[in-house]
Amino acid sequence: MARALMKGTEAIAEAAIQAGCKYFFGYPITPQNEIPEYMSGHLPKAGGTYVQGESEVASINMVMGGASTGYRVMTTSSSPGISLMSEGISYIAMAELPCVIVNISRGGPGLGNILPAQGDYRQATRGGGHGDYHVLVLAPGTLQEAVDFTQDAFDLSQKYRMPVMLLADGFMGQMMEAVEIKPRKAEDPKANADWALGWWNERGGKRAVIYSMLMNPDELERHNAKMQEKYEIISSSEARYEHFMVDDAELVVTGYGTTSRICRSAVNNLRDKGLKVGMVRPLTLWPFPNAAYSDLPKSVKGILDVEMSAGFQMVDDIRLATLCDLPIATTGRWGGHSPTVRQVEEKCEELLKK
Predict the structure, then answer these.
(1) Closest to 254 in 3D by CA, of 316, 164, 196
(2) Which single residue of 4, 139, 276, 316 could bond 256 by disulfide (Cβ 3.0 to 4.6 Å)?
(3) Running DSSP on this structure, what letter comes out for residue 44?
(4) Using one digit for the tens of pLDDT, what is the confidence trace for 219-253?
(5) CA–CA distance, 284 with 114 (Å, rounded to integer)
(6) Maximum Cα–Cα distance for the chain, whole Å?
(7) Rounded distance between C-alpha atoms, residue 246 and residue 13, angstroms
């Protein structure tokens, strides 16, 4: 389709349809309600199936069933809804099933409010549920990236047979920008016939078994070892990031998603004042792009982490990436508030004077 002005949630939904999403299972929660609403009207027209579960718990277990067929499946929710899905996500990870999960995050903890926040960083990057597993996490900063990353998520989930999460927030879900959504060729589900359910003839009558429980500790240890090997491959090959004006920077600002837009404006304004400030933007939150921080030029004397979370959650990964060799400061807002460009500028000016 040609470039069109679309709301973020609807752009994500259309991107999923154009990427070959066959089944959508979900439950309404603000601020992502337009995704299931859009899917209910448009996915059946594209030959897919929309099902509203009676809850988030039901929906994620429907995702597991749909993913077991080898077709492209998806669910979407917002912060407390993702919490309810966490057990099912762990089951899906154990069963090594491909699916896409979108979190349009909101203020918390608890029910919090319906305004944008980034307090779900740890939940997303540490799996969110029980056991030793990861989900691959993509963090778009524009609606065009949200479109592209949604389609990437389907490809990555099938490549690695695992859940992939798109982590955005209420700002991105509700804003409108011009986007171009191209059809993405989906893998023929028959390509998954060696493991997926429902392809009896393609396997010559052999059974396929999908499970998420191994009672024998030796078998479970071997299965976990296989999963960890996969995660090592993903960590070395799928980490993404952007450097912006860092070549001669003395201070680097870092943020993901919506806050990266605020950081970019602050960097441009500070450069106009002659201050040497750059930006690092993680595009994947897991795997975290350690090289984005470990490979900074020697001119960098410090990092400012900007987040919409009370715990400044990404800062822990930045410390690990830099091996604590650089001083790291934080600034931000939370509870549904966002930091302003001027707030970031003032914090940078303060740090550069030290």
Answers:
(1) 316
(2) 139
(3) G
(4) 999 999 999 999 999 999 999 999 999 999 999 99
(5) 25
(6) 72
(7) 35
